[in-house]
Amino acid sequence: MKSRILLLLINLASLKADQTPFSKNTADPGHLCCNKLFESLPSKVHLPGSVEYERQQYDYYSLQQAELQPSCRVTPTTSSDVSLIMKTVTTNLCPFAVRSGGHSAWPGSNVQGGVTLDLSQLTIIDIDEKRGTVGLGPGSRWKAVYAAMEQYNLTVVGGRSPNVGVGGFMLGGGISLLSFRRGFGCDNIVNYEIVLADGTILDVNATSHSDLFWALKLGSTNYGIVTRSTTREELQVIIIGGGDEIVSVWHASLDSVPGASLTDTPTIADSTRTTSLLNLVGDLQSSAFVETGRRRTYTLTVKLDAPFLWDVFKHAKDIFDKLEYVSGMHWYLIYQPITKGFPIKSSETGGSPFKVFWKSPMTT
Ligand SMILES: Cc1cc2nc3c(=O)[nH]c(=O)nc-3n(C[C@H](O)[C@H](O)[C@H](O)COP(=O)(O)OP(=O)(O)OC[C@H]3O[C@@H](n4cnc5c(N)ncnc54)[C@H](O)[C@@H]3O)c2cc1C
């Protein structure tokens, strides 16, 4: 961690202005596109060594992503910009990546030698009280969305972590603290604005391009670049939850007598309280989740079965306790129940590819 900060300071000392000359490295696969894009969007194209390029590179959740070096980073501010960028990269066959919140735990939103579209400037939060919807830019992060909506006593079916981006979350299902009642985040979308590979800008919803609408709910980057997700508003909810003591709460609840309330169970330490979604997701802001570092994430989905989950925890503890001496290493085990409320909501709102896998209550 210390060496990373030092590296950044050294980089900052040698930075040039953003208007760096065009890339001359013809062996670089992104060279042609970066030069073309620099001609049409000069203030939005950032080449290696510029302040903005280095700032964006540093702003990834996982180090594996930050270490990839695109030929340039492009920061569109409108869907027309995204359209122009898509036409350029597809016509000239340049490798590219799309980044919204940059919270993938694996290299998914940056590219080595190519064009990275950084959507972090597309942060609109457009509340339409008449229609009961909110239009969200993919670069918005959930903390900002909840804060904007709470002023109107409203909220949305969004992420549990304050810094996750709307873009990746809404294109990967999206598990929310409201999902038990409202399904996945994607089940609440009423319209995607998307830019296709040929640059066409489309509105996609239950009546217009409905097959694409269905597929986008777990679509990631595969069908185009989403520049706005319009989702249903919810009335602000008050939630019982806690920040840092999840394992102890699980332990306690698994051992407790059937029917006992969660709040009656003994815990090692207890930070549970009744509070707003904004405050609850804020708990994760200060946790080790947000430290910069190298990540490895694995997921397993099984039939809901409490003794099995308890076994998994004990095995994980056996493995990781032996690695306690490794400095800076953290491990997390997160159980996410997928209860019957999830697919019910999905059916009500036009279905999603997830429905294909659903058999019975599960835990991921
Ligand atoms: C600490 C932490 C907490 C998390 N909490 C939750 C949670 O509560 N619920 C949950 O469901 N998930 C959660 N996740 C997983 C998270 O939702 C996914 O990793 C999500 O893909 C991150 O989205 P992003 O925009 O921040 O990431 P990015 O890395 O920017 O993007 C992720 C992927 O989506 C693609 N993509 C992003 N934006 C667009 C776009 N506009 N158009 C097309 N493709 C796009 C990218 O190319 C990339 O492949 C969490 C992850 C972390 C690290």
Automatic annotation (TrEMBL):
Residues 1-17 form the signal peptide. InterPro entries: FAD-bd_PCMH (IPR016166), FAD-bd_PCMH-like_sf (IPR036318), FAD-bd_PCMH_sub2 (IPR016169), FAD-linked_Oxidoreductase (IPR050416), Oxid_FAD_bind_N (IPR006094). Residues 66-236 form the FAD-binding PCMH-type domain. Pfam families: FAD_binding_4. PROSITE patterns: FAD_PCMH (PS51387). Keywords: FAD, Flavoprotein, Oxidoreductase, Signal. SUPFAM superfamilies: FAD-binding/transporter-associated domain-like. Belongs to the oxygen-dependent FAD-linked oxidoreductase family. This is FAD-binding PCMH-type domain-containing protein. It comes from Marasmiellus scandens.
